[in-house]
Sequence to fold (540 residues):
Amino acid sequence: MNAVTDRPAAKAYASGLEARLAVRRGEHRGPTAGVAPGYVQGNLAILPKALADDFFRFCHYNPKPCPLLAASEPGDPRLPALGEDLDIRTDIPLYRIWRNGELVDEVGDLHAAWRDDLVAFLIGCSFSFEEALLDDGIRLRHIEQGTNVPMWRTNITTQPAGPFRGPMVVSMRPLQPADAIRAVQITSRFPSVHGAPVHIGKPESIGIADLTRPDYGDAVEVRDDELPVFWACGVTPQSVIAAVRPEYSITHAPGHMLVTDLRNSRLSVL
Amino acid sequence: MNAVTDRPAAKAYASGLEARLAVRRGEHRGPTAGVAPGYVQGNLAILPKALADDFFRFCHYNPKPCPLLAASEPGDPRLPALGEDLDIRTDIPLYRIWRNGELVDEVGDLHAAWRDDLVAFLIGCSFSFEEALLDDGIRLRHIEQGTNVPMWRTNITTQPAGPFRGPMVVSMRPLQPADAIRAVQITSRFPSVHGAPVHIGKPESIGIADLTRPDYGDAVEVRDDELPVFWACGVTPQSVIAAVRPEYSITHAPGHMLVTDLRNSRLSVL
Fold:
């Protein structure tokens, strides 16, 4: 699952740091959508060092589905590039622990689960570019309907790195053509949160047979005067990791993201 | 008609100035496509001062179909913004003279046709953004087939100014979706030569009933895996002027453009 799960608004904090401290103190336990408007949220993947180097290369080779915002040093729970007072073991409301690809636990902090060989990866999420689209007056149906964005596995391949390989997963937002053009312009400015769309208008060309039946998330209507617009999706790294069945790994629980000190607007390259 | 008429390559000169001097000396008499690769070419419209102010406003209000590169002072045949040694009366290979909206003559220079109250308008043309697309490896079917780009009148209205009003005319290039996305990015950088597309993929939404029957130019095939991508077109100001039936006006003959000293790359805003 991905970042847009459980978007209904939570209490809003004035900054990413304030939201993170509320999470750390146990005052905020739910999904993070809307908890710090304007601040970047990230998807978490934690892997043992034995796999981390290959995953790092995988992210670098596949920046559209796997835009890497930051990675920690092995065993170090800090991510100074994303926030001064940031501890990846305590600052996410809900974590999932995986062994050999099986979900074994959901926990509120990682003090018991942490190991000295773990590397934390924070990957950009569509929240950031969706905020830019909404701020521009573009309406996003899955948000208006309070559902998860629909996602599909495609016939677009990722570039493998070590054991990490698999199809690109995409999310879809229906837009009228003029908004689709504007959305290309806006999201092109945000390469670290998936960037420009990877496809517009011909789902069968990328291996999507049925727009009414997403592989993940919830279907949304595509009206006659709209084009389906597809962006590379952060579910890609999650499904690629799952396929490797690491002996040990940790992710955020769906919708429970890391809130950073970075402002969404600062991700714009122009 | 518009700039992409008669694209087959002519002799190439090393600069816009060299091409212009060859035209002035009578050494180059044909269409200007390809005569000075890398240099901006412009569409010409010459109007009496009595209409020029309204037309100037029309261009300002409608920059996508009417991107104004430069306008002369009344009676002054120079356009210093476009070239140091530039005389609009002699530097285009073939002109058309119109009276009350009727074509009355085609001439090789304007010495006999010039008047002290005439204002010359130079409007950006799709040659410039097409060069940027081709340089990026995007294939354009009408160029490969040596035909004129297909164009249609749409249901998109322009903002009127004085007597100037009418529908936007668009040109269409079929592109595979990934190329369409890239073409939005590239042409967005060139607002002075029509900029980003105005529409993608749903011709009926903009009043185009039949992609096989353009209002101007030649039809091109749109394959199953392609989207029709529509740009605002320089035929818009031509058709708007024609509808006003000015007592006197002058245009370039189709495909016979003004070659300037500006480099296409310098039109990029980023």
About this structure: Chain B has a mean pLDDT of 94. The first strand of chain B starts at residue 39 and ends at 48.
